[in-house]
Amino acid sequence: MFGKVGGFFGESKQELAKVSWPSRGEVIGATVLVIAVTLIIAAFIFVIDLVLSFAIRIILR
User: Fold this and answer.
1) Sign of CA dihedral 42, 44, 48, 54
2) Nearest-5° angle of CA 52, CA 53, CA 55?
3) CA-based angle 12:13:19, to the nearest 5?
4) What string of DSSP letters covers 29-53?
5) Model confidence at 4, in pLDDT bands (50, 70, 90)?
6) Rounded to 5 degrees, what are φ and ψ at 60?
7) Band of the pLDDT at 6, cuts 50, 70, 90?
8) Is pLDDT above 80 for 2?
């Protein structure tokens, strides 16, 4: 049982050594991009919500 667990962790370590990890700059760039796109989409949904809320208020008067 413990041999299988040790083998699993050993194989996992070997596989992780093969991974091509991104540089710090790439991680920061991707993070900034994700935050920017999230803010843009949030602003878009906010504007659509305002427009639809206004339209529904006018229709229901």
Assistant:
1) positive
2) 60
3) 90
4) HHHHHHHHHHHHHHHHHHHHHHHHH
5) confident
6) -85, 0
7) confident
8) no
pLDDT at 3 over 80: no
For residues 55 and 49, give the distance between their C-alpha atoms in angstroms, rounded to a whole number.
Answer: 10
Q: Which two tokens stand for residue 51?
A: 């427009």
Residue 54 phi/psi, 5-degree rounding, is -65, -45
- Give the C-alpha separation, 37 to 58, whole Å: 32
pTM here is 0.67
